[in-house]
Write a structure and sequence with these properties.
Elements lengths: L3 E12 L8 E15 L4 E5 L13 H12 L7 E7 L9 H16 L6 H12 L3 H8 L2 E6 L5 E6 L6 E7 L5 H6 L7 H20 L2 H7 L6 H4 L6 H7 L7 E4 L6 E5 L4 H13 L4 E5 L8 E6 L1 H6 L1
The structure holds adenosine-5'-diphosphate and ligand LJ64HWYM.
Adenosine-5'-diphosphate binds next to helix 1, strand 4 and helix 2.
């Protein structure tokens, strides 16, 4: 165990990118910062507007993620003092839960002597979250493409998307729990839908790697989750249909929603203006802005507790 404070800065993420349901994610420059140190009793301090109502005890997801990692390492989970500041709004489809899991795991992993590598943390975080797209993007930055095998092991490829790619998000002022938005999806799909899904996801990976925005425009299209979620997200269908006339490569539901994401390789102003108009038309209060892509993923720093050591 180490007697210092660990500071972990974790980017937000947008998952799926249309056709990459539960397999493709991209990191964005909005951050959750977790400070963690050993303590006599566990407590969680929440700072800032985006965490209202979250538990301030061992029920907090950041502690739960730390506890999960320690149990997998067969280490007794220490009492922890955790301070969290977050710019990622909850349950909007920008990966707040994935960032919390990565924050808790990376911080405690450092505190307890680094039992796991980054790749192993990716496995653990994907298991806990249930899908790898958010946690992988938050951990590695850029674009993350991953697949789960029958033994529940995740294989991934991580790469930087083209520099010209810009991301516009429209973040509504209402929440949609990922659990609820997963609940509306069918259990089974036809072969036609399966072939549509795998061909579009494959095309999307290739288009993102190559920077082929024309192919990306087709590749973003999805038949697996968006048709079943779109009724929960007013304005989405219109933006999906017409966004291309305002400079969008294409649009998608960000994660499980309700945030809408649109991609462009041009200046984003015209697209932002258009999306704002659509949201107004549907009476949705939303913040529509460009958010830069995060290319680095999680960053972990150690603050020595020399002053506290002297006092003890
Ligand atoms: N900073 C945080 N600290 C603790 N728990 C968090 C934090 N951020 C998110 N969570 C947990 O994740 C839930 C939101 O997850 P989810 O519905 O999947 O939405 P999102 O799209 O934001 O990941 C919150 O209700 C909370 O339980
Ligand atoms: N693949 C998941 C992604 C959920 O992302 P979130 O940011 O909404 O938690 C899904 O589509 O359910």
């Amino acid at each position: 165990m180490n007697d210092y404070e660990v500071v972990v800065k974790v980017p937000a993420s947008t998952a799926n990118l249309g056709s990459g349901f539960d397999s493709i994610g991209m990191a964005l420059q909005r951050y959750t910062t977790v400070k963690m140190k050993l303590a006599n009793q566990t407590k969680v301090n929440l700072i800032g507007q985006h965490q209202q109502g979250l538990p301030m005890n061992k029920q907090n997801l950041i502690y739960q993620a730390a506890d999960y990692l320690c149990r997998q390492a067969e280490i007794e989970t220490p009492q922890l003092e955790i301070e969290v500041e977050s710019e990622i709004p909850l349950s909007r489809g920008l990966g707040s839960s994935g960032a919390a899991i990565i924050g808790g795991m990376v911080a405690v992993n450092t505190l307890v002597g680094t039992p796991f590598t980054k790749d192993e943390i990716f496995q653990l975080a994907s298991e806990l979250e249930g899908h790898p797209d958010n946690v992988g993007a938050s951990l590695f930055g850029g674009v993350l493409v991953a697949a789960k095998n029958k033994e529940n092991k995740f294989t991934y490829v991580n790469f930087s998307p083209p520099e010209q790619l810009k991301v516009v998000v429209s973040i509504p002022d209402y929440e949609l729990q990922t659990k609820e938005a997963r609940g509306v999806l069918p259990e089974q799909y036809s072969r036609e839908d399966a072939v549509y899904a795998l061909s579009h996801a494959a095309l999307l990976s290739a288009a993102l790697m190559r920077g082929d925005f024309k192919a990306m425009g087709e590749a973003l299209n999805d038949q697996i989750h968006q048709p079943y979620r779109k009724h929960l997200i007013p304005g989405f269908e219109e933006i999906l249909e017409n966004g291309k006339n305002y400079g969008a490569i294409g649009a998608a539901i960000s994660g499980a929603g309700p945030t809408i994401i649109a991609f462009t390789s041009q200046s984003s102003e015209r697209l932002i203006l258009y999306i704002k108009q659509v949201m107004e038309k549907y009476n949705v209060n939303a913040q529509t802005i460009e958010i830069p892509i995060d290319y680095n993923g999680v960053v972990c720093k150690i603050n020595e507790r020399t002053f506290e050591k002297l006092e003890n």
